Amino acid sequence: MDHRHLFDPLFRRWCRRIELSSQDKDALTALPWAQRTFTRDTYLVREGEPTTMCSLLVRGFAFRQKLVEDGARQIISFHIPGEFLDLQNLLLEVSDHNVQSLNRSSALIVNKTALLALMDSRPHIRRALWLDSLLDASVFREWVVNLGRRDARARIAHLLCELAARLKSAGVAQAEEDLYDFPLTQEQLADATGLTAVHTNRTLQSLRRDGLISLSSSQLTILDWDRLAEVGDFSERYLHHSV
Amino acid sequence: MDHRHLFDPLFRRWCRRIELSSQDKDALTALPWAQRTFTRDTYLVREGEPTTMCSLLVRGFAFRQKLVEDGARQIISFHIPGEFLDLQNLLLEVSDHNVQSLNRSSALIVNKTALLALMDSRPHIRRALWLDSLLDASVFREWVVNLGRRDARARIAHLLCELAARLKSAGVAQAEEDLYDFPLTQEQLADATGLTAVHTNRTLQSLRRDGLISLSSSQLTILDWDRLAEVGDFSERYLHHSV
DNA sequence: CGGAAAATTGAGTACTCTCAACCAGCGTGG
DNA sequence: CCACGCTGGTTGAGAGTACTCAATTTTCCG
After folding, report:
1. How far is the CA of B178 from the C1' of C25 (A)?
2. What digits encode the pLDDT tens for the residues B55-97?
3. Across the interface, do A148 and B88 touch by the CB < 8 Å criterion?
4. Does residue B112 contact residue B120 with C-beta atoms inside 8 Å?
5. pLDDT tier for residue B173 given thresholds of 50, 70 and 90
6. A72 CB and strand D closer than 7 A
7. How far apart are CA B188 and CA B75, in angstroms?
8. What is the side-by-side strand order in the sheet with A213-216?
9. Is the pLDDT reported for residue B233 higher than 80?
10. In chain A, which stretches have pLDDT less than 70?
């Protein structure tokens, strides 16, 4: 079967930043990809295991996480269709964190040696992949700031702004009038913001009470973008949506 | 003057992971580098400004940071000689964070277009630079975990372990019997761990009281590596010292 | 319809912060 | 040579944000 259309979100994202010839696109889609689907919380990559493949998310959400010694979990990033989940494993031999599906989702998997070979012959693909890993890192940096220097209200507001901005930029269908498909549980939100689920719940209620957001049954509406961004000290710069 | 020896820490670090021909090294050192020295707290890169150069730290310490809306500072990473300070700016047009010298230090500065051109013709240099930015990102991820899911004691222990491990790996001279040159102030330590300077002070005292470390007048001694690593939930994996 | 997962609520606890004062080391200048 | 001032480190007391634990309600799915 032809899975060429599954690359559309990726190419749309890339083409906003770099020039990509149709030969480049053809070369990428021609790689031996395998499509796999996952139920929620399935591990795609496990910390400590040798790296052999790379995954491009094409449906659903995914996230990366690490577990600390007492069993607590810290989520490191969320991912939406059109994003790679483990690009760093192209050059690293052992994975340093876990990757999990967040809901029912699917990804294209390719052997990393095939992708590495393509990169050597395709400068634009190479550039795009490197840029992607730099954008990942920029988000990690902002998360360090979010966890280190913002209180619970600001952390959650910031995370909601980030996800909304990325979903909007990706042109996700439901993103009309700031309404987003938002399948995160409050526990996942808590594990991403370094809070407990209970405190996350109370903080969300405070954001709702103030008329900033509406969030229920996997639907997030941002009722007042400006005030939410102010509460979350959010600026889009670190997403580098232009260049 | 010949500044070729200033690249030694970089090449030593790189050669542990990848093969590098003498032509590769010559090509890199032959770029039009300018050496600049900095007094403490000098800005090398400012958030929001267009990126034009790349910096390789050759003496002293440096760090990256972001400021939040209320003026608080979050340090994102520390850097030692032989590390690049702003590799991501090769591909990003606007800097998303600040880079500052931590003490009296100096760096080699090169125009980023010159470095980009070299990368296109030197696959091994390219590979080394990409790997460096992936290692940066791995450290950012671990910091997310550190800030999100560890208490003050563990955060500080973890940070001390990381810096000690990196200094030891770099073969810094003073690193005999776990004694390290450690010029960070408690305020900088606090800004890196998301704590206040006061609480950082009390937590350091508790680590000293327990016989884990000795820290004064810019000298850190790790008295009991195993217990400190246990307190800090520290594992070297994310540093990817092998591969 | 039933059971599990997710969300919500309450009460008590504790870790970390804030503010403010004080001490120690060090380079500069009188 | 000592006084001075600045930065960095230390201490104390009180406040507050976020946590823990446990129970309850609501939602989601098979």
Report:
1. 25
2. 999 999 999 999 999 999 999 999 999 999 999 999 999 999 9
3. no
4. no
5. low
6. no
7. 7
8. A179-181, A219-222, A213-216
9. yes
10. 1, 173-176, 243
Dihedral, B125, B127, B130, B132 alpha carbons, nearest 10: -70
Average pLDDT, rounded, for chain B:
94
Angle at B147 between CA A238 and CA B231, to 5 degrees: 150
Domain ranges of chain B: 4-143, 151-239
Q: Where are the beta strands (DSSP E) in A80-224?
A: 98-101, 105-111, 179-181, 213-216, 219-222
User: What is the CATH topology of the domain spanning A4-143?
Assistant: Jelly Rolls (2.60.120)
For range B194-211, the mean pLDDT: 97
pTM of the predicted protein model: 0.95
Q: What CATH number labels A151-239?
A: 1.10.10.10
Å separating the CA of residue A105 from the C1' of nucleotide D29: 18
pLDDT for residue B1 is more than 60: no
Task: Work out the pLDDT band at B207, boundaries 50, 70, 90.
Answer: very high
Q: How far is A87 from chain B (nearest CA, A)?
A: 9
Kindly tell me the burial class for residue A155, based on how many C-beta atoms sit within 10 Å of its own C-beta (0-12, 13-18, 19 or more). buried
Helix, strand, coil content of chain A in percent (nearest 5): 45, 20, 30
Q: Nearest Cβ partner of A141 from B69, B138, B140? A: B140
- Considering only the beta carbons, identify the residue of A66, A136, A147 that sits closest to B147: A147
Flag if A94 and B143 touch (Cβ within 8 Å): no
Average pLDDT over residues B229-235: 97
- The 3-state secondary structure of chain B reads CCCHHHHHHHHHHHHCCCCCCHHHHHHHHCCCCEEEEECCCCEEECCCCECCEEEEEEECCEEEEEECCCCCEEEEEEECCCCECCHHHHCCCECCCEEEECCCEEEEEEEHHHHHHHHHHCHHHHHHHHHHHHHHHHHHHHHHHHHHHCCHHHHHHHHHHHHHHHHHHCCCCCCHHHEEECCCCHHHHHHHHCCCHHHHHHHHHHHHHCCCEEEECCEEEECCHHHHHHHCCCCHHHHCCCC
Asked if B92's CB is within 8 angstroms of A148's CB, the reply is no
3-state SS, residue A113:
helix
- How far: B198 CA to C22 C1' (Å)? 14
Give yes or no on whether A4-143 and A151-239 have one common fold.
no
Closest by CA position to A59, among listed A25, A77, A83 = A83
Cβ <8 Å between B137 and A142? no
Do β-strands A219-222 and A213-216 pair in parallel, antiparallel, or remain unpaired?
A: antiparallel
